Amino acid sequence: MREEIIVRVGAKILTPFIIMFALYVHFHGDYSPGGGFQAGVILAAAFALLALVYGLGAVQRVLPPWFTRLCAALGVVIYGGVGVVTMLLGHNYLGYNALAHDPEHGQHYGILLVELGVLVTVFGVMASVFYLFAGRGRRDS
Amino acid sequence: MSTVVDIVLLTLLAATGIALLRIRNLFAVVMLAGIYSLLSAGLFTVMDAVDVAFTEAAVGAGISTVLFLAALALAGHHENRPGHTPLLPLVVVGVTGLALVYGTVDMPGFGGADNPVHHHVADHYLEESPHEIGIPNVVTAVLASYRGYDTMGETTVVFAAAVAVMLLLAGRRRSRAAAGDDGEEGGAGHR
């Protein structure tokens, strides 16, 4: 597919919009359908599209495999870390009311943060798994 | 109107399912599986489960299709005919399906307002979440706040699944080096 100019240009134009859409789905998840999980999948799909068109090597220069593996673990740490922070502030584990003076704001921040953890993990996992599948045939040959 | 849409979507879903079973070209099978997911996403939208539809479209029709394609590049495009007759599996599937249909007879009517499932904790979520959580999307409120522990568990499961895939697929290069030292252990894990 690397010689098809329409596909190459189309993918290049679409990618920033896909990434923006993923961020929208995450940060607007309180008001509209979607959340961290869907955003993570869409974000990973943007890089999968680039890898399909421009080849795995080009994408891995931008997004190296060690970084996606780090993301997969980091998201769980973010999620669990929010719980630890609320505990240190004297509330229950994952009791978001602790995060701000107004409980509703605390819930808002808490939900946004744990969903960010979900986003980072899901993105890291999806991208890592894609790299593993796509890179395997190459290494064998 | 929504009944017509339901019938059309379910008919297309059944047609796609039958085509999936009959076609031996795996490339076409992968594409049909993506279409199947997209049709399911349409059905979920008709049922007002937009969050589920969103996930189905992104994961089922998006990422899994790409992963299947990547797997096809390794495994080849053609599926061999099975060596056994499909009679026994057909009987097993038929009996299981009939048992499931029989099980639905006892269930309360679909979409009924007074079904037990709508009155366990759902009332509390719907009435109190605007004051307790303060965000309009109740699905997000339930997912990330009321059921925060569950979602953390799910995130951990996703992470654990990725670790398992990495152990299965990424160990190759290292095992080749290990095969030089002690060949037995290195090769056994993969085939």
Short description:
Chain A has 141 residues and is mainly alpha-helical. Chain A has helices at residues 5-27, 36-54, 56-62, 65-88, 103-140.
Description of the structure:
The complex is a heterodimer of chains A (141) and B (191). Chain A is elongated, with a radius of gyration of 18 Å. Chain A has one domain (5-140). In chain A, 79% of the residues lie in helices and 0% in strands. In chain A, helix 1 packs antiparallel against helix 2 and helix 2 runs parallel beside helix 5. The mean pLDDT of chain A is 87. Chain A has helices at residues 5-27, 36-54, 56-62, 65-88, 103-140. Chain A has 141 residues and is mainly alpha-helical. Chain B has 191 residues and is an all-alpha fold. Chain B has 9 helices and no strands. Chain B has helices at residues 2-22, 26-46, 50-75, 87-105, 122-132, 138-146, 148-169, 172-181, 183-188. In chain B, helix 1 (2-22) packs antiparallel against helix 2, helix 5 (122-132) packs across helix 6 and helix 6 (138-146) crosses helix 7 (148-169). The longest helix of chain B is centred in the first third of the chain and has 26 residues, at 50-75. Chain B is globular and about 60 Å long. Chain B starts with a helix and ends with a helix. Residues 179-191 of chain B have low confidence and may be disordered. Chains A and B meet through helix 2, helix 4 and helix 5 of A and helix 3, helix 6 and helix 7 of B.
Name some characteristics of this structure.
heterodimer, A: 141 residues, 5 helices, 79% helix, elongated, B: 191 residues, mainly alpha, Four Helix Bundle (Hemerythrin (Met), subunit A), 9 helices, 76% helix, disordered C terminus
Please give the alpha-carbon distance between the first and last residues of chain A.
Answer: 19 Å
Topology pattern of chain A, helix = H, strand = E = HHHHH
How many beta-strand segments of chain B? 0
CATH architecture level-2 label of the largest domain in chain B? Up-down Bundle
- Seen as an oligomer or otherwise, the chain set is heterodimer
Largest sheet of chain A: none
Mean pLDDT rating of chain A:
87
Poorly predicted parts of chain B:
179-191
Task: List how many beta strands of chain A DSSP finds.
Answer: 0
Q: Find the CATH topology of the largest domain in chain B.
A: Four Helix Bundle (Hemerythrin (Met), subunit A)
Strand content of chain B: under 5%
Can you count the helices of chain B?
9
Mean pLDDT of chain B: 83
From the alpha carbons, calculate the radius of gyration of chain B and give it in angstroms.
Answer: 23 Å
Question: Class of the largest domain in chain B, according to the CATH hierarchy?
Answer: Mainly Alpha
> How would you classify the helix and strand content of chain A by structural class?
mainly alpha
- Beta-sheet strand percentage of chain A? under 5%
With helices defined by DSSP (H or I, 4 residues minimum), what is the helix count of chain A? 5
Overall morphology of chain A? elongated
Largest interface: A-B, 52 and 43 residues
Q: What is the 3D shape of chain B?
A: globular
